[in-house]
Design a protein that fits this description.
This protein is an alpha+beta fold. About 35% of the residues lie in helices and about 35% in strands. The chain has four helices and six strands; from the N terminus they run E-E-E-H-H-E-E-H-H-E. The strands form two sheets. Strands 1-2-3 form a three-stranded antiparallel beta sheet. The chain has a three-stranded mixed beta sheet with strand order 4-5-6, covered by helices on one side. Helix 2 crosses helix 3. The longest helix has 23 residues. The N and C termini lie far apart (about 40 Å).
């Protein structure tokens, strides 16, 4: 399976503007810019999209991990915080923090934590990210 996305950038780094598109149509010429990425201007940026991809991948993978352990999630909420820092070699993603809350009827905190930790390192997006990934995982009662 292969998925495709594309970017078009016009102009210089700070004064230019670009668009992001995905073959599925989920993104269609979605604008992005220096101010959206490195400042606080509204709009999307690559780091936000990485966060969305990681949160979505993790939540789905955790549901599968829980099912393999004999549990079924009613709801999994995952927020991903992607940290972009300026280093000596330029900007770099230095960390991703996953904040997970799940409602899993009949699950113990121990069984849930085990599944969440296995998923943190096992979901495909976690595997592709070459950065420190941390997590807080809470089981709702």
């Amino acid at each position: 399976m292969e998925r495709t996305a594309s970017a078009v950038w016009n102009g210089g780094m700070k004064d230019g503007k670009g668009t992001l598109s995905a073959a599925s149509g989920a993104l269609k010429e979605t604008p992005y810019s220096f101010a959206m990425r490195f400042e606080s201007s509204p709009g999307t940026n690559p780091e936000e999209l990485i966060g969305a991809a990681h949160a979505g991948c993790f939540a789905m993978a955790l549901a599968g991990q829980l099912e393999r352990a004999g549990m079924k999630a009613e709801r999994i909420q995952t927020n991903a915080t992607v940290t972009l820092e300026m280093g000596t070699g330029g900007p770099a993603i230095t960390a991703v923090h996953l904040d997970v809350t799940a409602k899993v009827p009949g699950a113990t905190q121990e069984a849930f934590s085990k599944a969440a930790n296995e998923t943190k390192t096992g979901c495909p997006v976690s595997k592709v990210l070459n950065t420190n990934i941390t997590m807080d995982a809470r089981l709702e009662t």
